TrEMBL record:
One of its GO terms (biological process) is nucleobase-containing compound metabolic process. PANTHER family: RIBONUCLEASE D. The keyword Hydrolase applies. Keywords: Hydrolase. Residues 1-36 are annotated as: Disordered. Its EC number is 3.1.13.5. Coiled coil: none annotated. GO terms for molecular function: 3'-5' exonuclease activity; nucleic acid binding; nucleotide binding; ribonuclease D activity. It comes from the Bacteria. Residues 238-318 form the HRDC domain. It comes from Nocardiopsis aegyptia. Residues 9-32 have a biased composition (Basic and acidic residues). This is Ribonuclease D.
Amino acid sequence: MANALNSKTDSREPGDDDAERAPLLREPREGLPEVTSDADALADVVSALSAGTGPVAVDAERASGYRYGQRAYLVQLRREGSGSALIDPVACPDLSALNDALDGAEVVLHAAHQDLPCLSEVNLRPARLFDTELAGRLLGYQRVGLGFMVERLLNLRLAKEHSAVDWSQRPLPEDWLRYAALDVEILIELRDALETELAESGKLEWAREEFAAVLAAPPKEPRADPWRRTSGIHRVRNQRSLAAVRELWYERDRIAQERDVSPGRVLPDAAIVEAASTMPRTTAELAGIRQYGIKLARRYLTTWIKAINRARDMEQAELPRPNAPGDGPPPVNRWADRAPEAARRLEAARATVTGIAEDVVMPTENLLLPDSVRRLAWSPPETVDHESVAEFLRERGAREWQIGLTAEPLATALLGAEPE
């Protein structure tokens, strides 16, 4: 841990001079591979990857903002001795054969929490993980995007102009495929550079614990009341209008799922909030709201009015509460009045975590989840000491390296915040 306290960090971002020096990757080393789109070609890819050695670089392209859900529309892999492969998971929806072929090899992903769910949908489930984005966070990098980290650590540039395109399109343009292949071209080299830095800073075992925790995390449960995350909902001031947001949101989601398009392309969040705030009574009034002029929104004007009218006709008991019920502490801004002793504990705990995070050079949220700190301050163990705080954090998913760094200082901070 002594090395970690002196972890080397260079938050300097590549500037114009760096951009001139760093060459732009333009072509995969072995050329652009054909897209694998049938069983025979997939068997060849499985065989080639099985014959390779070392870690396997993996990436997935989705159609966020275009299609409903987060399924993969292209999967890229690369391994030493195997070269790169591009797989169409629409044509080849079951990639489970790769799990045996890779035989427990380490899979290298950038921002694994984004790609693991869609890889799981096609039955590609890594046994071991190295997450280059998470490694960058543990090392204290100010920016952890793939392009930045490749340029910073490998002095190479990746073109990113196709990062937000519609990957569900078929056939995929050649320049998109080249972009996708290059995303795994140097991922292993990036992994090696980051592993070296992690080892030098004393954080390698911490990173391994984090990677294992990412893999072991259960699938996310569907969010309760997902409509409450509608952008701009804070402008909605009464329960009946909140009910209109809810009704419009669920109608939009149903239509988006049926049409397999992104919900925002059916009806923007701003349109939901505006209609819920003004509660129009007719399709003509609704059509007067600018956002309802887009093609799909206009097609369903009658549907939207029916949703608003359902909210208008609801009994009071059917209306949603202004704030979603939760199982955690109340909002922090209420603590000073409701529980001043908890507010003092939180202030001391936050200061302690911030200080440790600065010492080990990483974001506070990677050292310890803010929710865990709040819950500890609101409802600490009956007897506050190193062991009880450690168990409290462990029950909430903290890893052993996090507990080792924070449990004792937090116990001291909590005790110090109590009135004499």
